[in-house]
Structure formats: structure tokens, C-alpha cells
Amino acid sequence: MSNTNNSLTSLALQKFKKNFWGVLSFWFIVIVGFVSVFAYVITPDNSQNANQMHLSIHSKKPGFKVVMLSLPSKNETAQSFFDKLFFGKINQTEELPISDYKIENEVLSYTEYASDGLVGQLKTLPLTTFPNQEVQNYIKEKTFLFGTDKYGRDYFSRILVGARISFFIGFVAVFISLVIGILLGSLAGYFGGKTDAIIMWLINVTWSIPTLLLVIAITLVLGKGFWQVFIAVGLTMWVEVARVVRGQIIGVKEMQYVTAARALGYNDFRIITKHILPNIMAPVIVISAANFAAAILIESGLSFLGIGAQPPMASWGAMIKDHYNYIILGKPYLALIPGLCIMSLVMAFMLIGNTLRDALDVKNYESS
């Protein structure tokens, strides 16, 4: 039995590797996951939520360059290495976009950046403002790869940091849906009778409520916030998992290996967890991949409606909400870039789900 399972697993893995779109989707998801975890290492703006604002350079086109003057802070808040790595640096340094500067008589004179052909205000600073009077270390040209948003924030940094919410909501929501769905589906399918009737009634009631309305209701009860959205999405996605698990268990609970386990005196918990569930996980894995994509879309919709991740937290759905009116103002990329990111990640999960469905289909190996 063990050798058969191993051979089927190896066959499924070989078939998965032969699917170009499945492998491509897998590596794309791996890259997005890496970016999500180490976003603050990669982003040009490593402040918390990439929230460094420069209103004078708002809504600039991709590739925009400007000279940036950084004013050092005298009171630095201590942060651990891991805090900076995973949550960003507490922003205490003021950055000023400038168009020109000169140093004379121990004084730095600079002209603030101004758009639309206007001339910025001329200001001065004593060189003693900078440690060891090393002014050049605090004046650097900065390039905004994706331009800036309407608040003058680095859009590329916001996109990378925003990947965290879309990526991790899939994991959290799918984990919650698997825990609840497998538990209730196993109880309904294995025991049947009144247990099945009660759980199916709960499934049908939950199924009859539109997903977005149910998520909104749960979010309003739990409150607005990062983790509240994750939990709300997860609590609405368990129904499909429960139905699949219930149907699979009904189909296999009378098979010989389950009857043999009962005859050996094993309890119901062991029979379900050790004998039945390992043999029905293929369709559950496939539906989990689809739920990843659904969770990303639901979170994006909630953020667009303003009840998802709250500002200044970066979220692809919130970015579309903030900039969708720019589509008719000549800067459609501000809404299209996060939209393409959502579409790409959802498509990757759907493609990998389809590939897993074909690779894990036992019927394909029956003749071999």
C-alpha cells in the first residue's frame, strides 16, 4: 500500500513538472512569497508601510528622478533587526525633494522642488545640522521606478509591500477554511444521520448568503483591521471544503480498508484521520488552490470598499480605490499596476489548481 502511494505520488509529481504553466505559476507564487516576506529588504522606501510622503512630487510618471535631501533626526527610536526586517523602519528622517542646492560659508542653501514650471522656495540650513558636516551623504538622486502616488509615495515600494496582504490572506483564509471545513465535513460524512442533517443545514444557510455580504457582516462585528479581514474571509470559505470532504467520505467510508480498521477495533478519530483523510486529500488540495485565488479577490474587493486593510497600510485593492479616477485623468497606470498584480497572482493560483487537478487524478494512472 505504501509503495503504491509513493508510486502514485511520484507519477503525479512527474506530470506536474511536465506542465509548463503549472511550473511557471509555482515559481511565480514562490517569488511573490519571497517578496512578501522580505519586502522591506527589497523596497527603496523601507519605512513602515512604505509611507514616506512627498506631496510636491505627487502622481509622477514611472522613472521619475529627483534630488532628495534627508534631514537627520536627533532622536532615533531603537529598533531590533527583526523588527526592521519584517515591519519596516520607523520613519524619523524627513526627506525634502529639491531642485538645486549650494554650500557657502558653512550654510546649505537649497531650492524646494516645485512642479508645473514653478520655482520652489529658497531655504537655508547650517552645516552643523548634519553629523560631521558631511552634507553630501544626505543629498542623493532618487529614482521612482513606478512613479509616485497621489501622496508622493514611492509606488514601487507600495506595490511590493502591498503584496504581503494579498499573499498572506490566502494562507490564513485557506488554513481557517481547511480546519473548519475538514472537521465539519468529516463529521457529516462519517457519522451521517442527525449530525449530517444539522451540518448540511448550516452549510446550506451559509451557502445561501452572498460571500461579500457575509464577509462585510463579519468584518463589521470583528471591527476593521488587518487580522479581522483575514479571519472574516476564512470564515466564509469553509463551506466548499466541508461539502467536498463530506462527499468524499461518504464515498469511501464503506470500503474494505475502512471496514478492516473498524474490525481491528480502531476508534472513529483514528479511522478518520489516519485512514480516510489521507486518501481523499487530492480534491481538497485542488479546492484550496482555488480558495487562495478567491481570498485574494475578496480582500481586494473589501479594500476597494474601504473595509479591508486600513490606511496607511499598503494594499493592492486600496491602491485601485485611491487611483481609479486617474484612469480618465491621463495616468491610468496608477490603477492598472495593482490591478495587473492582483490578476497575475489570482491567475497563478488558478493555473496551479488546474495543474494539480490533472496531476492528482487517479483515473489517469489506472491503466498504467
TrEMBL record:
Residues 163-353 form the ABC transmembrane type-1 domain. CDD domains: TM_PBP2. It is a multi-pass membrane protein. The keyword Flavoprotein does not apply. The chain crosses the membrane at residues 20-42, 165-191, 198-220, 226-245, 276-298, 333-353. Keywords: Cell membrane, Membrane, Transmembrane, Transmembrane helix, Transport. One of its GO terms (biological process) is transmembrane transport. It is found in: Cell membrane. It holds the Pfam family OppC_N. GO terms for cellular component: plasma membrane. Its main location: membrane. The keyword Cell membrane applies. Belongs to the binding-protein-dependent transport system permease family. This is ABC transporter permease. It comes from Pontimicrobium aquaticum.
